[in-house]
Specification:
33% strand, twelve-stranded mixed sheet, mainly beta, 8 helices
Length: 531
Amino acid sequence: MRLSRRQLLLNSAAASTLVAVRAPAQSQEVEVLPPVPSLGDKVVWPAKMPSSLDRAIERGADVAEAGGSFLSGYRMLVNASTNQRLNVPFQLSVAVLRLGRRDRCRHPISFRIADSAAELPSPYEFSSKDDLYECHLFNVALKSEGKHVVYVRDEQSGTEFPSNVIVASREEPKYKLYFGDIHIHTQWSYDAVAEPDYSYIYARDAMNLDFACLTEHNPTDYIWEKIKAKARELYQPGRFATLSAYEWSAAELNEGHKNVYYRDWEGPILRSTEFPERANTRSAADLWAKLRKAGKSGADTLTIPHHMAAKHAPTPWDHYDPDFQRCAEVYSTWGNSESPAGPRQIRINGGFMAGHFVQDGLAAGQRLGFVGASDSHSGRPGYPAHSEDYYNSDYASWDPNQYTGGFTGVYAEELTREAIFDAVRNRRSYATTGKRIILDFKVDGHWMGEEYKSRDAPHLTVKVGGTAPVATVTVVKNNQDYLRVEGRGRHEVEFEYGNTEPPRTTDWYYVRVIQEDYEMAWASPVWVSRP
């Protein structure tokens, strides 16, 4: 579906300036935007959602399928790790979501790909042996370099489901792109379902994620030992990375919620006053001080706030430790925490509170990279539904107050817990709404998340590989939409832009991607300071 220009652009009385730029594969137009309303103004983005998408977006459903039929029926999610070597077999997962269906899927499926020499699986029919995780893993090998999509056809309905984009190369890049879900709850939390093994294996096999970790609420000492042991047990370097982590929740202290992640398996369990009888910290400052007392530093520990603008648990941006708090969870099943102007606004316990979004934290001087996650409580991380139907049985029926979960994309040297942690710590990460959108953003050759000094006007490079046609790619500068490129029906958008201004003090740039199906991605900022 093509979105109209009126739907995509923020309202402004000022005229825009169009500047032609040359991209590696195509000529694009960069639209330099006039100043947009500040966060204090009432902004609705976009002015009107396309009517055919209204209900789907409101219900948090995926909108890639046409005609609304996806709200009742079988849907197949087809996923593989993004970077692959030529001629080396890899695993492709096909997972079934039964949207409103109680019966298990028994449909036959087949496979196709544009790479005629690729080795694809033979036709397959789902059976009872696939029922536990409602998925099956297949071996695939690619024979030509470049970007590939595997299509899985449901032979009974005739519907085809595409995989994420898979990039095949002869040599491995220095930094490979991995996707994961780093915010998951299980029966070890008071408000979640599913056994820890089930959640981890669902993330690994059904969603075919590269990394994941459990973040239980203020666990007891006994549960904390079990969390660490389970992370060790499921860790498979090169296949599936796990981390030791937990959630520190201090809404009653007006300190918000933070997930604590350790680079090593071991780390202290520091609990907030959510459970007074277990509490051993009373503020975020106390949390950070006790981490240091235990010998921890930003090199091996991260505290990442989430749903920062939720009314019931807002994150105060005047509390900050630049060593530990280096990222923020910009998206989860609770909604979009970038700003109050965006789609998929926060929906949790009364909605959002102005002044506590990620942009407010950036404006307060916090150097925050971006991650995304599910905050799954349903036992199916990576693509959760939080409905009673999932709690009481096992089929998907969307809760109108929830969205689909998010992912974190990281550029890491290898698939190990240390490399994944380091990529997040260095903010070489980005958030998505649960799609494996490929996003590469650099400023003067510096990766997303970096800080550097320069007297010169920065040169921006943006590369996007969408899972659907791209609607817009927007560069945000100092929290203002700065320039925008329209996708015009393309899945791939690449451009460079050098007509910027030298920094006066410190400027930060990040990228927001919106596809025509309203799936999104946000690249971590790059900070440019004048020497």
